[in-house]
Design brief:
- The structure is a single chain.
- This protein is of the alpha+beta class.
- It has one domain: Roll (Ubiquitin-like (UB roll)).
- The longest helix is centred in the N-terminal third of the chain and has 7 residues.
- 29% of the residues are buried.
Length: 105
C-alpha cells in the first residue's frame, strides 16, 4: 500500500499506509493524525483538511478544481502548495507523498 507522511506544524512526522483510492484526509482521520479536522467528512464543503503538499509532489497531483479553489479561500495561511486533502486520492504514483498541516485549521 502507498504511504503518506504527515508533518505537523511543530515538525513531528507520522507515516501511514493508505489503500489506493483513499483520500489523504480519510487516511488521516482513520489514523488519528492531528491537525486535520475534516469537519465536512470529505465533501469539499469546508477547509479543515487543508495541507501543504511538498513541492516535489505537486506535479503528480491533479489540478485544483473550482470548488477546491473556492474552499481554500476559507483556509488560513494559504500558500501556492495548499491543497484540501479530501481532494487528493492515493495511488501507487503518490507512494511516499509528504504533506504538512498548518498551525491551525
Amino acid at each position: 500500500m502507498p504511504k503518506i507522511t504527515y508533518i505537523d506544524s511543530e515538525g513531528t512526522s507520522r507515516e501511514v499506509e493508505a489503500k489506493n483510492g483513499t483520500s489523504i484526509m480519510e487516511a488521516a482521520v482513520q489514523n488519528m493524525i492531528p491537525g486535520i479536522d475534516a469537519d465536512c467528512g470529505g465533501a469539499c464543503a469546508c477547509a479543515t483538511c487543508h495541507v501543504y503538499v511538498a513541492d516535489e509532489w505537486a506535479s503528480k497531483l491533479s489540478p485544483k478544481d473550482d470548488m477546491e479553489e473556492s474552499m481554500l479561500d476559507f483556509a488560513e495561511e494559504v500558500q501556492e502548495n495548499s491543497r484540501l486533502s479530501c481532494q487528493l486520492l492515493m495511488s501507487d504514483e503518490l507512494d511516499g507523498i509528504v504533506v504538512t498541516t498548518p498551525e491551525s485549521q
